[in-house]
Hints:
The protein has 182 residues and is α/β, with parallel strands linked by helices. The protein has helices at residues 2-39, 66-77, 116-132, 155-167, and strands spanning 48-53, 56-63, 84-91, 102-105, 108-111, 114-115, 137-142, 145-152, 173-176, 179-180. It has 2 domains: 1-100, Histidine-containing Protein, Chain: A (2-Layer Sandwich); 113-182, Histidine-containing Protein, Chain: A (2-Layer Sandwich), CATH 3.30.1340.30. The strands form 3 sheets. Strands 7, 8, 9 and 10 form a 4-stranded mixed beta sheet that branches. Strands 1-2-3 form a 3-stranded mixed beta sheet. Strand 8, helix 4 (155-167) and strand 9 form a beta-alpha-beta unit. It is flat, with a radius of gyration of 19 Å. The chain starts with a helix and ends with a strand. Residues 15-20 and 96-111 have low confidence and may be disordered.
Amino acid sequence: MRILIIMLVALMTLASANCERRDVADSAITAKVKSKLAVDTETSALKIDAHTDGGVVTLTGVVPTQAEKAQAEQIARNTEGVTRVINNITVAPSSTGGAGVEEKAGGAVKSAGIAAEDLTILSKIKARYIAEGIVGANIDVKDGMVTLKGNVENAQDRARAESIARAVSGVKNVNNMIVVKQ
């Protein structure tokens, strides 16, 4: 009986370790997909969300064209570690700020109404959050001003989220509205 319990505990420990590794791998895949979407001139990273579970990436959001929907799917499919893509993106031609629209405004190239510098800041912060294991924080960037929202597990994660955002080049100010879960 004792051996059976030891074996059961060992199996549960292995299963837990595998789940944790898969969660980290899934988070890394999600970060890669989002980063690729952010730098692609044909897609709007702010209108498309990606979530990964077991290597399967699910895309959601609303975009103005079928071409943008297809491009987002192609980007996800071409990302290392992705085993399958579920494309739940909705095409709504009336949605504003279509990707691929570039204009010069104050010297900044804009794509989908978002300055390229803001997309770079967003990508860098998200990548650091994934690397640091910060989950539950949402990031908005406009003209170098970062707003953090969402819910995190503890005060240390809240403080680290703000510190990471402040350390990214180009960030002018950080408004930390993150709430610590009770």
